[in-house]
Batch of 2 targets.
Target 1
Amino acid sequence: MSSEFGHLLKISVFGQSHGAAIGVVMDGLPAGEAVDLDALQAFLDRRRPGKNALSTLRKETDRPTFLSGLENGITSGAPLCAMIQNSDQHSSDYSELRDKPRPGHADYTAFVKWQGQADMRGGGHFSGRLTAPLCIAGGIAKQILARRGIQVSAHIQSIGEIEDRPFDSMGEQAEILDRLKAAPFPVLDEHAGERMRAAILQARSERDSVGGVVECIAQGLPAGLGDPMFGGM
């Protein structure tokens, strides 16, 4: 039942969708690394809910409070713990769903795994809300990696049956990756993006949803990364 992953850098998340707060603990961060909190907040704002008709209607500021591991914007070597207070909670909206698991969610899995004791409101610990603390960890890691010449980017590969063009296997130009990082709806082909947005709004009008795929690229990784044989890449 672990909510932790990683070996050299261990990441664990805590909290529930409709609990008091959610958060992340990062254990193994190197000491002395600067964290640009404004850049981190801009990164978090990209996934913040309630911004437009394409995202969940829940309103959250998603401003993290650092409880440990960060002093004057510099990592101290101690485990870094960051917390985000939940504010826009409507738990009564889920009262009918306690014994009605939703298709495409982890409701039934959570109910069985935790023998009926799981917090079922809004998906509880399995909610997409828990991607916010993961973005704190990812945003910090991206800043540290960038200083070492490693860039990580992503785009929406597909929504339903509509596909964006794939990343170039030889790598993408820096200006393309910079555009993706700033785009509210990151796609490589804007025409495909327009069709994706229309598909999402159409599904929403029909009280339905569509699946999606995200493609990620990491450029500048050192050769020989990983360990033989099962820790390789």
Target 2
Amino acid sequence: SLHGAPCWFETLTTDVGLASTFYAGLFGWAPEVMSMPGYDYTVFKIGTDPVAGMLRITPEMGNLRPHWGTYFTMNDADEAAEEAIRLGARLCVPVRDIPGVGRFCGITSPQGVTFYAIRYSS
């Protein structure tokens, strides 16, 4: 993927059943639930192509409201986090690995907009 290009869209919600029905109906997406250690992750697909994901908000996540997050491909997630901080942002999710996927972090811009930077492992 191209450095700086949007690459994934993910919603966090309190009601995955309602959200799954809504987005499937609105966009024609087919939800596919994947069981991960400790949680389920829904991948929305158009045909066989994954286009977005969904995760249930848990109490451990704090006082999150349902929202959509955009992921941007980066050449190096650690470097992106350092540069974002240098430019006045803060990390809302520290840099960490997603096993089998890549390394990412959550960034909140100086204007208060949250997004995610990821370097895919494959």
